[in-house]
Amino acid sequence: MKLLIDCGNSRMKYVYLNTDTLGKVESLDNDQIDQKILNQLLNGVSIVCVSSVLDEQLFELISNSASQNGATLIQAKTQVQTNGIICGYKNPQQMGVDRWLAILGAQHLMPNLNLIIVDAGTATTVDILTSNQRHLGGWILPGVETIHNSITERAANVHSEFKMIDQLSFGVTTQENVNQASWAATLGLISMAKETFVNYLDKNNEKTSDDFQLIFTGGNGKKLMQLYREFNHEELIYVPELVFHGLKQYC
Ligand SMILES: Nc1ncnc2c1ncn2[C@@H]1O[C@H](COP(=O)(O)OP(=O)(O)O)[C@@H](O)[C@H]1O
Ligand SMILES: CC(C)(COP(=O)(O)O)[C@@H](O)C(=O)NCCC(=O)O
Ligand SMILES: [K+]
C-alpha cells in the first residue's frame, strides 16, 4: 500500500493509494502530529510520497517513520517540465510544490482546457494553465482566514471570529464586516484572474472564453466555489484531492 502526504502550513492531508484508486482524504492539524501518530499512519505502507511546503521539521518525522517501517520515501519537487506541462516560474524550485501538483492533477483530470486553479488554504493561490499546457504563472494572496486574522490581530477595536458565510452581503456588525470582506476579497481575486487570463488569450490570439474551467481545492475551496457560483455561471468544480492526483504521478 502507498501513502500520499501533503504538508500545508495549517494541516497535513493524507490519503492511501491502493493500485490506482485514491481513498478518502483525511487531515490532521500540524500541531497535533507527532512521531507516534505518523508511525501508526505508516504501518504496512511500502511507499510514502510527500509534498511539503514546510521547513524540514515535519518532513523529518515522516522520514523517521518511513525508516522504522521499511518504507521507501519519495519527496515531490516542482520541476521545469512534467508530462509536457511547462512551469511558468523563472526558477521553478521557488514555486510551492503543492501548486505544481495541483496543476498536474488538474491537467490530468481536465486535459486541453484553459484552467484556473484555486487552492484556498493558509494562502489562496491561483495558477493559470493554458489549453496547450503552459503554466502562465499565478498569484498568492493570504488565505481567507489569514486575511480575516490579519486585521483582528492589528486593530484594537476589530473583534471577530472567522466564519464561513452563506452568501455575500454587507455587514452590520464588526464580525460580519470582517468576514464578508475576507471572502469578497478572495472572490475578487478569482474574478480578476479570469479577466486577466481572457485578456492574455485575446492578445495572443489563443482559444478563448468557451473552454475555461475553474477548479477549486483546499480547506476553503468548496465554500469559495459555492459563493463564486452565485455571480458566475461558468464551469466550476471542487476537487478536494487535487494535489494527490498530481502527487500520485510521482510514485
Ligand atoms: N475542518 C477544517 N479544519 C481546519 N481548517 C478548515 C476546516 N474547514 C475549512 N478550513 C479552512 O481551511 C484552511 C486550511 O486549508 P488547507 O487547505 O488545509 O490549508 P494548508 O494546505 O495551508 O494547510 C484554514 O485556514 C481554514 O480557514
Ligand atoms: C503559497 C504557499 C504558501 C501556499 O501554501 P498553503 O496555503 O497551501 O499552506 C506555498 O505554496 C508556498 O510556500 N510557496 C512558495 C512560494 C511560491 O509558490 O512562490
Ligand atoms: K495546500
UniProtKB/TrEMBL annotation:
It comes from the Bacteria. It is found in: Cytoplasm. Substrate binds at Y89, G96, V97, D98, R99, T174. The active site is at D98. The keyword Phosphoprotein does not apply. Gene3D superfamilies: 3.30.420.40. Its cofactor is K(+); NH4(+). K(+) binds at D119. Pathway: Cofactor biosynthesis; coenzyme A biosynthesis; CoA from (R)-pantothenate: step 1/5. Keywords: ATP-binding, Coenzyme A biosynthesis, Cytoplasm, Kinase, Metal-binding, Nucleotide-binding, Potassium, Transferase. InterPro entries: ATPase_NBD, Type_III_PanK. Its EC number is 2.7.1.33. HAMAP family: Pantothen_kinase_3. Homodimer. This is Type III pantothenate kinase.
